[in-house]
Design brief:
The protein is 51% helix and 13% strand. The protein has nine helices and five strands, in the order E-H-E-H-H-E-H-E-H-H-H-E-H-H.
């Protein structure tokens, strides 16, 4: 099973995915963003674009997830990735389903105000200009509202409640309890540092 956690930038996808993997058995995190940034940085600076516009990235995501799933070493691959372009979503999710994979598409939704606040908390607004991620808020919120996905309100609930909701929807039993507040905060800081690109 592939648990694709979608949402706008600042929507909590990465923290939800890491915590879901920590609290479940035989799940693995697969982060397509790593390959995307690699492809993007391969291009000369003047030719760089959103890596999702690179066909090799989309094909690569399907191939990598197919390999992970066919290994049968895990019961689920957890994928935190914003994917709001309908054609790309169909290419990737449709491609995975055509290969016989069970894709559970979950969208974390939050208000634009909450997303901006979270992105500012990640130092996204220190330059005085809106970051690329902030500029995508309207597009992402609009696309996610029309998307065929199981929605989880991530606006006013905490990480543990979101993880429990996602796990229940995906049918993944939680085998570890939530972390105490101080350890949870420390883990969130470690995860945030680990995914800085």
């Amino acid at each position: 099973m592939i648990v694709w956690i979608n949402g706008a930038f600042g929507g909590g996808k990465t923290h939800t995915a890491y915590e879901l993997v920590r609290r479940t058995e035989r799940t693995v995190l697969v982060d397509p963003e790593i390959a995307g940034f690699g492809l993007q940085r391969t291009l000369p600076a003047g030719l760089r674009c959103d890596f999702q516009d690179i066909a090799a990235w989309r094909a690569g995501v399907v191939e990598i997830l197919d390999r992970v799933e066919r290994s049968e070493k895990h019961i689920a691959s957890v994928v935190p990735m914003t994917l709001v372009e309908p054609a790309y979503l169909e290419e990737i999710h449709g491609g995975l389903r055509a290969l016989g994979h069970d894709v559970r598409h979950i969208a974390l939704v939050a208000s634009p105000e909450t997303l901006r606040r979270r992105l500012r908390g990640r130092l996204e607004g220190l330059s005085g200009r809106e970051s690329w991620a902030m500029q995508q808020i309207g597009r992402c919120v609009s696309a996610l509202s029309d998307m065929d996905a199981h929605r989880v309100d991530n606006d006013r609930v905490g990480l543990d409640a979101v993880v429990e909701h996602v796990a229940q929807h995906a049918g993944l039993p939680l085998t570890k309890p939530p972390l105490p507040a101080w350890r949870g905060q420390l883990r969130r800081l470690r995860v945030a540092a680990a995914v800085i690109r």
